[in-house]
Design brief:
Number of domains: 2
CATH superfamily of the largest domain: lambda repressor-like DNA-binding domains
Number of strands: 5
Order of helices and strands: EHHHHEEHEHEHHHH
Mean pLDDT: 79
Strand content: 5-15%
Radius of gyration: 22 Å
Oligomer: single chain
Structural class: mainly alpha
CATH architecture of the largest domain: Orthogonal Bundle
Amino acid sequence: MKEQSTLKNRVRELRTRLDMRQSDLAREIGVTRQTILAIEKGRLNPSINIALKTARVLRAVRPYVWSGGAIGSPVEAPDAVVAAVLPTRDELRQLAAIAPTTVLVLASQLSYLRSIAALTPLTLPSPADRAQDRSAQLRSQIAARLRQGDVDAELAVLAPLYEEHAPAMVAATTIWDLSQR
């Protein structure tokens, strides 16, 4: 039986190091606490956008980039290892001992990589994920403008709607209502 390296995330470890609750992290990156729980338990692979936001919030910015050759000991402990070339089984084991490892491969190299490691694919954001990200971004921009008070009084009345519904839906309803007058 072949030994397989497990590539896992360190979200919980980094979050607790910052003394941050799941709900705090969820609010910072614009997802639910249940999403953070699923990511930490390995039941959900986040989209690249969510993974990047999570890395930024958790200050996971010290990668060790390996481009082949001898594997040296980094001076400072990295948060992640990025293998820019396909490693051998022993090289992958050494890299995984340093930090969680991401291997950049071509589609033709996947079968080999599957034979030496248990893989967790990075998912690309779906159109729904991108729309949700955009909606969260618009919601935060609207909330900031409402806090600053640089909106008309009539629009300020809609603030609770923007908290519960997609900004585009509120705007569309408002425009439709105005066109009916």
